[in-house]
Amino acid sequence: MPIQEGDFVLIQVEDKRFLKRITKGFNLSYKKRTLKFEDIVGKEFGTLVNGFYLLKPNLETIILYGFKRKTQIIYPKDAFYIAFRLGINKSSTVLEFGIGSGALTAVLSKLAGSVIAYEVSPEFYKNALKNWDTFGLCKNVKAINQDFMDADLSGREFDACFVDVREPWLYLKKVHSVLKNSTMCGFLLPTTNQVSRLLQEMDGLFGGVEVMEILLRRYKPVYERLRPEDMMIAHTGYLVFGMKIM
């Protein structure tokens, strides 16, 4: 389908990328090149115009270039792996709390049947809702502006859970109580001392525990001088996974 007014387009020129909504009066200049509204509307995604590639954005590019951040996001390199490790599918109901800017929630939403997501900060909660609404995401997500500890989940059982809060060990017994037996729960923590405390508190509640860190090293896609990028995002967080035991 041709690009229409109001569509989001990932525009790439040389090694620069811009995620833009195409509206009347749109104008993008890069060095001596210019891309205007009338150059884009009616073109097919994948078209090269005046040195600008017009590409259809996927979820990764939406998160990286489009999401507004009030707090650090869970980067796609971690988020997509998290969703895979949780083992979710369209029959799964997933619990998440500490949603921040809503990046991981958007990934979970694509794979799960439904997501119940808690965020205690009103500022983060409103920003996440705005991010999802802007890009038409998370229609199967029920977001709640509340501390998970205060949530009434009587009779509920979840197929998977992910936790991104500063002191997740405070919530472990409640998380354990609402998960189905042998289902996966994941955690993200920025420091090793937090991981150590979490591991101590998980003992007797979760089995098959694993701790890992995912590093992603990108290369410059230039065939004459293939080499790593000059800079990389190294540490984003430690991932901890465990399965509920009786």
Overview of the structural elements:
By secondary structure, this protein is α/β, with parallel strands linked by helices. The protein has 2 domains: 8-57, Roll (Vcp-like ATPase, Chain A, domain 2), CATH 3.10.330.20; 63-244, Vaccinia Virus protein VP39 (Rossmann fold). It has helices at 37-40, 59-66, 76-86, 103-111, 122-135, 172-178, 192-202; strands at residues 8-13, 16-21, 27-30, 33-36, 47-49, 52-55, 93-97, 114-118, 141-144, 158-163, 179-189, 206-212, 219-220, 227-228, 238-244. The chain has a 7-stranded mixed beta sheet, with helices on both faces. Strands 2-1-6-5 form a 4-stranded antiparallel beta sheet, with helices on one face. β7, α4 (103-111) and β8 (114-118) form a beta-alpha-beta unit.
Rg, Å, rounded: 21 Å
Number of helices: 7
Question: What's the quaternary structure here?
Answer: single chain
Beta-strand share of residues: 25-35%
Strand order, largest beta sheet: 9-8-7-10-11-15-12
| Amount of helix | 25-40%
- Structural class comes to alpha/beta
What sequence of helices (H) and strands (E) makes up the elements? EEEEHEEHHEHEHEEHEHEEEE
**Which fold name fills CATH's third level, the topology of the largest domain?**
Rossmann fold
